[in-house]
Structures are given as structure tokens and as C-alpha cells.
Amino acid sequence: xxxxxxxxxxQAAGGAPIVSAxxxxxxxxxxxxxxxYAHFAEHAWRPPIATIAARLELDPADVRACYxxxxxxxxxxxxxxxxxxxxxxxxxxxxTQHVAEVGDNEYFANCAWDVLGIVAALGRPGVVHSRCEQSxxxxxxxxxxxxxxxxxxxxxxxxxxxxxxxxIVFT
Length: 171
Hints:
29% of the residues lie in helices and 18% in strands. The protein has helices spanning 26-43, 49-56, 60-72, 112-122; strands spanning 77-78, 85-88, 91-92, 99-102, 105-108, 126-131, 138-144, 147-148. The strands form two sheets. The chain has a five-stranded antiparallel beta sheet with strand order 5-4-6-7-8, covered by helices on one side. The longest helix is centred in the first third of the chain and has 18 residues, at 26-43. The protein starts with 25 loop residues before the first helix and ends in a 23-residue tail after the last strand.
């Protein structure tokens, strides 16, 4: 790769190597990642490994291995069982207070920032719901093709962005 000494590979934060599309396993990882996101978009919930395996005609063990590699690259966050998706940003695999209504579906997001990202990722108008953690006020915001309606919302996190992955679930 350009700019790196011979034998060195670029690394994602945390030290996981970044896989090139030319490497063995990269194509299957991309297919699994796309299938995971398609499932979230279609069903508004995390896909079981068996569902992704059936969709792609893969062995569930191969999908589980892909999940692990995608987690090493910080593209997925897995539950402790290694099988269940906790996060496929901006989608949450567990219920949260951050909800995007798009069409007939309600999607859980990981945070107030991600809930806006779900509407943008789906490319359709929606309504986002959240809660201010300081005042506990219920928040509702319509989001259209041009972005959110005017609002006085502020997004704040006390954790510096460089430290988010130290505990991404807490952040």
C-alpha cells in the first residue's frame, strides 16, 4: 500500500488490520456487512446469524467469523455471545430511547446523533424521537430530504471523540 513501509499494513483504531478488497475473505465480509444493513433497513431489527447465512447461502460459522472480523474493524459491535449485533451504526440492535420513524417502521439508534443518521441512511423523510438526558424532556424532530426542521437541539457528549471506542456502548 502506498506510503507504508514494505510489509506494514494500515490499521484501524485498536490495531485491527484494514482488509483490502483483494484479500481472501474481504468479499464475503462486504457481502455480510451489506446483508446486515439491508436486514436492518427492511426489518428495523438486528438479523440473526442464521438469517444472514440463509440470505447469502453461507454456513452460519462463516457468517459468525465475518461478524468477528467486522467487529475488529469497528463496523459492528457484538453482544458478549459473539452472535448478536449490538450496534451496526447508526442502527441499534437493542431498544433505546432514540427512535426513528421512517415509513411504517421504527428503528432504534445508538444515540441522538445516530437517530438522525438512520433517517439519512434510509433516504426517506422521518420523525426522530429522543430524550434530553439533562432535563429529561421528550424530543421530537421531523427530518426531510433537506435535513431536520429548525430546532434548538444541541448534541453534547462529555466523552472526547478520540475516546468513544474505549467504551462505545457507554458513549
